[in-house]
Amino acid sequence: MSLERPLPEPGDTVVLMPANALVLGGDLGGTSTRIVIADHDGKVVGRGAAAGGNPTSHPASAAANFGQAIHQALAGLGDGPLDPTMVKAAVIGAAGGSALSKPEVRAQFDAAWTGAGLVCAPDFIGDLEVAFASGTPASDGVVLIAGTGAAAGLVRDHRLIRTADGHGWLLGDDGSGFWLGREALRSLLRALDLGEPIGALGEAVVAAVLPDRDPDAVAQREGYDVLRDDLIRTVNSRPPVLLAELARTVVSSYEQDDPTARALVKRAADLLTETVRRVRTTSDNGPLVLAGSVAGDSSPVGRLLRQNLRDHFPGDVLTARDGVGGATWLALGALDPALATRANHTRLVS
């Protein structure tokens, strides 16, 4: 979506938007679906929220949640319902948005859209673009999301033109929450194989994966083989992505100065820095926006990552803010580039 509109040529039909035109922004995540409707001045006039809207995992329920959040937003904020036909531009960020390229999945989301009475065509974009727009009104720069997974993107004119990683837990997502959890478990299994002390991180992993395990058995060499087999069996019986839950265990052990946890945190920060390096060169001076729990200010990975980035790249390192606000601001720019102001950006993402 370009925020630069070409001047009309002689003979072109110029469509003037009504003064009371509205825009809609959406953020479809794995755990929540959020919709915001705003007017020309960036004033929010409607909000809606529902459960997860990731179209990859459960498209039918995600589409239903999408529709629920839209209907809630169209109910307005106390001044009566909004006219859905007055929504003239919409930008919706979707985690797992590539699933919308499947006709059967897109049809379910389209049905939720038109079922709410909306008539404009929604622009579905990736969560990287939304995260970037939530962190800065700049048109060019780099964005990194590091949560359960990890991916970086190069943004030009508010559009994603190149990505790095985001390959999923099996093939990539280096430095992510999943990576931290998997590596914590792998380090524990290596210690068990060698009969070495498992340390504070290993004990915490055992407690998280096998909460009913007798702590004394962990310290007994003769119980190591049984413990190892129980860990492997338990982890393989669950969805792999649940390993990301162990990221909190790594962080807690890091704060207790466990050497294995500290090494994993440093390695995660280095891997995420390398992911950024794949899309950003040292000559790029646009902002770099960080999003996701692993890259957050409160995460030790995020703190080391920020230091790495400041040491290797010029430009500001910023933190992503309200994703649905970023999408709504992009929708304002789609309606009229003149509306994509810094003031409106601040109003929507704060």
Give the secondary structure arrangement, pairings included:
Blueprint: E1 22-28, E2 32-38, E3 44-51, H1 59-74, E4 87-94, H2 103-115, E5 123-126, H3 127-135, E6 141-146, E7 150-156, E8 159-165, H4 177-194, H5 199-209, H6 215-218, H7 224-236, H8 247-255, H9 259-279, E9 288-291, H10 300-312, E10 317-319, H11 323-335, H12 342-349
Parallel strand pairs: 1-4, 4-5, 6-9, 9-10
Antiparallel strand pairs: 1-2, 2-3, 6-7, 7-8
Helix pairs in contact: 1-2, 3-11, 4-8, 4-9, 5-8, 8-9, 9-10, 11-12
Pfam family, one: BcrAD_BadFG
Keywords: Kinase, Transferase
GO molecular function: kinase activity
Estimated structural class:
alpha/beta
Give the full name of the CATH homologous superfamily of the largest domain.
ATPase, nucleotide binding domain
Order of helices and strands: EEEHEHEHEEEHHHHHHEHEHH
Shape estimate = globular
Helix content estimate: 40-55%
Strands of the biggest beta sheet: in what spatial order?
3-2-1-4-5
CATH class of the largest domain: Alpha Beta
Distance between the termini: 23 Å
- Domain count, please report it: 2
Q: Evaluate the radius of gyration.
A: 23 Å
CATH architecture assignment of the largest domain: 2-Layer Sandwich
Catalogue the unreliable spans: 1-8, 10-15
Under CATH, the topology of the largest domain can be stated as Nucleotidyltransferase, domain 5
Please give the largest β-sheet. Answer: 5 strands, mixed
Mean pLDDT: 88
Q: Give the number of helices.
A: 12
How much strand? 15-25%
**How many extended strands?**
10
